[in-house]
Specification:
Blueprint: H1 9-19, E1 32-41, E2 47-59, H2 65-75, E3 84-93, H3 107-125, H4 129-136, E4 145-146, E5 152-153, H5 158-169, H6 171-183, E6 203-206, E7 212-215, H7 225-235, H8 251-263
Parallel strand pairs: 2-3
Antiparallel strand pairs: 1-2, 4-5, 6-7
Helix pairs in contact: 2-3
C-alpha cells in the first residue's frame, strides 16, 4: 500500500494505527572530541615540531567514526611548515548516541584546538598572531609541498588568503580600536585561523574491467560525459567502453525526484 506525502493529522493517526507504530525522530550528533596539542617553535617564531592527540567519541556504533578520527588527526597539523609531526587519533566507543558526518568531518574540532595553540604561542613569543602564521604558512614558491604528515599539496594560496583577509579587515585600524575599547573596559575580540581542506579526492572509476582510473571530479556532480570522453581519448578507446560514473544517481536527479514526489 502506498500513501501520499501530504496527509491530515487524522490520516497520519490512522496510518500509524495500521502499522502499529508511533512517530519517532532519529538523528546523529557531531563527534565530541578531546584534542591535545604540543607546539614547538624557535625564539624567532619558526615552527619546528607538533604533537597531536585526538580522542573521538563515536557513540555506540562506529559508523564513520574511524574516518572522522583520521581526518581530525591530520587536520590538526594545519597548513604550516614543520620538520617533525606526530599524531595519535583514537575512535572510542561509548554508551552515548552514535555520531555521524557533519561538515568538516572532524576537522573543526582539531583546527580550533590547533589555531588556539597558535595564538597562545604568539602571546608567549610576543609576536602578532597574524605575523606568526605568515612566518610559518607554506609559501607560494614552495609548491608542490610535501608536508611532514606525508600529504602533498600541489598548489594552494595560504599566504595570499591570510593577507587578503587581513587587508580587507583593516587589521591595523582594528587593533587600534581594540586597544581603545580595552582602555574603556570593553572587550573586542579579533581572531584568525588557517586551515587546509583536502579537495579533488574524487572517485575511483573503472574505464573497463581491470582498468580503474582515479578522477578528481566528485560523483555528486552531473559531469559524467566529460570524464568518460577524457578517459576514452587518453586510452584511445571508444567512450562507451568507459563505464562507472554515468551509471550513478546524482544529487540533481535525486533532488528532482524528491521535488516531484512532494508535489504529488
Amino acid at each position: 500500500m502506498t500513501y501520499p506525502i501530504q496527509k491530515s493529522e487524522a490520516e497520519w493517526k490512522t496510518l500509524l494505527a495500521e502499522k502499529g507504530a508511533e512517530p519517532r525522530a532519529f538523528d546523529v550528533t557531531r563527534h565530541a572530541a578531546t584534542v591535545r596539542i604540543r607546539l614547538g617553535a624557535t625564539r624567532d617564531g619558526r615552527f619546528v615540531a607538533k604533537r597531536v592527540w585526538c580522542w573521538v567519541n563515536t557513540g555506540a556504533y562506529a559508523d564513520c567514526g574511524p574516518g572522522v578520527a583520521m581526518k581530525m588527526g591530520y587536520a590538526g597539523i594545519g597548513p604550516y611548515r614543520f620538520d617533525h609531526v606526530a599524531v595519535d587519533s583514537y575512535c572510542i566507543y561509548t554508551n552515548l548516541p552514535p555520531a555521524g558526518a557533519f561538515r568538516g568531518y572532524g576537522a573543526a574540532q582539531s583546527v580550533w584546538a590547533s589555531e588556539r595553540v597558535t595564538d597562545l604561542m604568539a602571546a608567549e613569543l610576543g609576536v602578532d598572531p597574524v605575523e606568526l602564521r605568515l612566518r610559518n604558512l607554506v609559501r607560494d614558491d614552495e609548491f608542490p609541498y610535501k608536508a611532514a604528515s606525508g600529504i602533498v599539496w600541489d598548489r594552494a594560496g595560504f599566504v595570499e588568503c591570510l593577507t587578503r583577509a587581513r587587508d580587507a579587515l583593516g587589521y591595523e585600524a582594528l587593533r587600534a580600536e581594540q586597544e581603545a575599547a580595552r582602555a574603556e573596559g570593553r572587550w573586542l575580540g579579533i581572531g584568525f585561523a588557517s586551515y587546509a581542506e583536502l579537495t579533488g579526492i574524487g572517485s575511483r572509476i573503472s574505464a573497463s574491467p581491470g582498468m580503474p582510473i582515479n578522477t578528481g571530479m566528485a560523483r555528486a556532480e552531473r559531469i559524467a560525459t566529460l570524464p568518460r570522453r577524457s578517459r576514452a581519448r587518453l586510452l584511445e578507446i571508444f567512450p562507451r567502453a568507459c563505464t562507472g560514473m554515468d551509471r550513478l544517481p546524482t544529487v540533481a536527479l535525486l533532488q528532482s525526484a524528491l521535488t516531484r514526489l512532494m508535489a504529488a
